Structures are given as structure tokens and as C-alpha cells.
Automatic annotation (TrEMBL):
<dbReference type="InterPro" id="IPR004000">
    <property type="entry name" value="Actin"/>
</dbReference>
<protein>
    <submittedName>
        <fullName>Actin-related protein 3</fullName>
    </submittedName>
</protein>
<comment type="similarity">
    <text>Belongs to the actin family.</text>
</comment>
<dbReference type="Pfam" id="PF00022">
    <property type="entry name" value="Actin"/>
</dbReference>
<dbReference type="InterPro" id="IPR043129">
    <property type="entry name" value="ATPase_NBD"/>
</dbReference>
């Protein structure tokens, strides 16, 4: 059975949370924080040795023994042990640490989705205004490390607009206000394509609103209680 006959893997990496699953499903299979907890000793290994270690352990069926964790497991591990450092690979919608991002994808594929990347096409997402070099790094990791047979990288607001359309792609036109945990963008889309020079970035995101409300509640509690 080739990759075309299997559902594609969909991974939507955001600053705060990552949604992942398979095409055809109504909802994501997993929604986890985009964070990695890595043991200090594991950080000293080279990227090439990590790759060989991942593939060898995956073939042996012992991927859970790798000494780094993602999502809620990472947060719990950092609270219980001081030897683990938390790393957030995405900041304001852009990948800043590619080694950590590679580890994160590895755990998503093998430990959460439990699939062989060579047997599925992949759909990944990126934030508006992402540099072309970032897409090149993503393709390099997916093709060279995970040996995926096919990859498509979509802009997140375009997918959000497409989710509300039942007509053809050529009629998909609108303006998307994408408010994420780390970034907010206003993105015009014409016939399925982003008008790049008209994208507006707003320096207020979901995290900022959450912190503001928390501070406001603290002030109110001091005034009334």
C-alpha cells in the first residue's frame, strides 16, 4: 500500500499549542503545548547522532526511552526534575530553534501519531511572513531525516479560510484575522492565494491578553478582598 492510499499526516505547529492528526478526521488526534523538555546530558549529542539514534530505536520499538519529552509530559518532567530544561522552539509564530523543532516533530510522529513517516504524505503549516529559508529548513528535516514521500506547507490563515468554504479554490477570497498565542496577523486572501505585501502584523496576541486579564484580576482582588 503506497502513501497515496493512506491518510496524510497533518501537523499545525503554533507558538503555544500544536494540533496533529490525520486527514479526513473531523478533529485533531492530539492538541499539546509546543514545548520540549531535554535532559542536560542529551543536549551534548550531535544532531547526526540523534538522527541515527532515533531511527535505530524506532526500529527496535523503544522510542519511549529517548531522554526528551514534549507537550504536557515536558511540563510535568521539568516540574519533577531539575535536570530537564524547557525549550520553546517557536516564538511569535517563527521557528527559532531547529534542533528542538526536529525533536518535537520526531515525538509527534513516532510517539503520538505512531506512524511511519515514509508511508504518509505530510501537511505542515507556517505563519504568515515566514521567511523562505524557514520553509527550506522544514523541507530538509522532513525529507532527509524522516524520509517523507511528499510534503505541503500551507499558510495557517489560508487553511482557516478554506475550512469555511465548500466551493472551489478559485472562489476562496476573504480577509482572515488570525489571533494566535504568540502572534496576530491580518491576512487578505484572493482566490486561494495570500496577498503578501498586504499582510499586517499586530504586536498583541493571545498570551498578551491572558497576562493582562491575570494582572487585572490581581488588582481587583486587592481592591475588593
Amino acid at each position: 500500500m503506497d502513501a497515496a492510499s493512506r491518510p496524510a499526516v497533518v501537523i499545525d505547529n503554533g507558538t503555544g499549542y500544536t494540533k496533529m492528526g490525520f486527514s479526513g478526521n473531523v478533529e485533531p488526534s492530539f492538541i499539546i503545548p509546543t514545548v520540549v523538555a531535554v535532559n542536560d546530558s542529551f543536549l551534548n549529542q550531535s544532531r547526526s547522532s540523534n538522527k541515527a539514534n532515533w531511527l535505530a530505536q524506532y526500529s527496535a520499538g523503544v522510542m519511549a526511552d529517548l531522554d526528551f519529552f514534549i507537550g504536557e509530559d515536558a511540563l510535568a518532567r521539568s516540574r519533577s526534575s531539575s535536570t530537564y530544561n524547557l525549550s520553546y522552539p517557536i516564538h511569535e509564530g517563527q521557528v527559532e530553534n531547529w534542533d528542538t523543532m526536529e525533536r518535537f516533530w520526531q515525538q509527534c510522529i513516532f510517539n503520538y501519531l505512531r506512524c511511519d513517516p515514509e508511508d504518509h504524505y505530510f501537511l505542515l503549516t507556517e505563519s504568515p511572513l515566514t521567511a523562505p529559508e524557514s520553509r527550506e529548513y522544514t523541507g530538509e528535516i522532513m525529507f532527509e531525516t524522516f524520509n517523507v514521500p511528499g510534503l505541503y506547507i500551507a499558510v495557517q490563515p489560508v487553511l482557516a479560510l478554506a475550512a469555511g468554504y465548500t466551493t472551489s479554490k478559485c472562489e476562496m477570497t476573504g480577509v482572515v484575522v488570525d489571533v494566535g498565542d504568540g502572534a496576530t496577523h491580518v491576512v487578505p486572501v484572493a482566490e486561494g492565494y495570500v496577498i503578501g505585501n498586504s499582510i499586517k502584523s499586530i504586536p498583541i496576541s493571545g498570551k498578551d491578553v491572558t497576562l493582562f486579564i491575570q494582572q487585572l484580576m490581581k488588582v481587583l482582588s486587592l481592591l475588593f478582598f
